[in-house]
Specification:
With 102 residues, the protein is an alpha+beta fold. It is 36% helix and 23% strand.
């Protein structure tokens, strides 16, 4: 899991390819859909329900998936950008993406 120090490092580095659009996300049964930009191209991204549940585990009082997404949006967008840079054309952030390598 990412620590506050990890998040500080993420904030200090701009996303290489995708940029945040800041548009409202949409909640679906399987997770949250959000849009980012690759130059002029809109890229549909997702964070799945299991990933949101894992993040909610950090804040037991947090029940609403949209609130969870907004609270962790910077980190989720950063992970989506990394996955896009690695070749995923419509990145899906999953629970294992929050694990740190040992």
């Amino acid at each position: 899991m990412h620590t506050q120090d990890d998040m500080a490092a993420i904030k200090g580095h701009a996303m290489r390819t995708l940029t945040a659009l800041g548009e409202p996300a949409q909640h679906f049964a399987g997770g949250i859909q959000f849009t980012m930009m690759d130059g002029p191209r809109r890229i549909i991204c997702w964070v799945n329900r299991e990933a949101l549940d894992r993040l909610k585990g950090r804040n037991p009082g947090e029940q609403d998936p949209m609130d969870c997404f907004e609270r962790h949006r910077l980190m989720i967008e950063h992970l989506a950008s990394q996955k896009y840079d690695a070749g995923e054309r419509s990145p899906i952030v999953m629970s294992f993406d929050f694990e740190t390598p040992r």
